[in-house]
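Posting this for the archive.
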Amino acid sequence: MTRNLRFGLLLLILVEAASCLGQASFPITLTWPPESPTVKFVFAKYQQSGFVNGQGIFLSDVTAENLSDQPMPKSVFTVFVMDKDGVRIGRGLLRLPDIPAKQTTRSQIQFSVAGTPDGLKLLSGRTIPMTVASVPSGANLKIDGQDAGVTPKIIDFSIGAHVIELSKEGYAPANSPLDVGSDEAPGGSVSFELGGLSKDTLQLRDGTVVLGDVLAMSMTSVTVRVEGKDQKFDRNQVKKIILVERVVTQPAPAAEGSPAKPK
């Protein structure tokens, strides 16, 4: 795995709005940090724009003002929507570009909310956009157990520890931990080389993957040797079988004039 990362700046703060979405006076203004504000956020009144798969879709225009004398690097803020009992029922990402000192930028945030929105929490944390690549490309990618697309893919990593998983038909699955530090900046990349499979692969319908040597297949069952022990699976348990190429070594022909080996 290779990493090519530049140094950067971490912004991490948790800000809670004291008002409720359904009862608050709009616009909602939040400053960070409260003791010595350097950024001011103004959330316009939320508007419901639709209803999809049982969830309400809400939009809000947001203004972010850099109050400091220093430029503010690109940031991503996770905004949580809570119900009246304080249960998290929705989430959206507020993405901001670089903001020069004493300047203002505008953005918009969208929520999918399962329930009645009542409270608002804003988790401000700079994420690190990084490209996850694989050799060969086109591998299915998971980040921390969640599907994230196909490589190469730009992922916004939060600061901390992550687990990257890669899978591609015909290649051995790969996984690796990734620690994203607060001194890392956008533009980096991680690359993984997938190894060829040395064993046959059975993908079962319950998600289990079995690696071994397929010994026999019939209309009703599949027999696989796994670590020296034969295992038999009902055909209906098996979703997919991937067979690796077997190299058969032929005995070298005897040299002319050499006596034949006794049988």
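Residues 1-24 have pLDDT under 50 and may be disordered. DSSP finds no helices and 24 strands in the chain.
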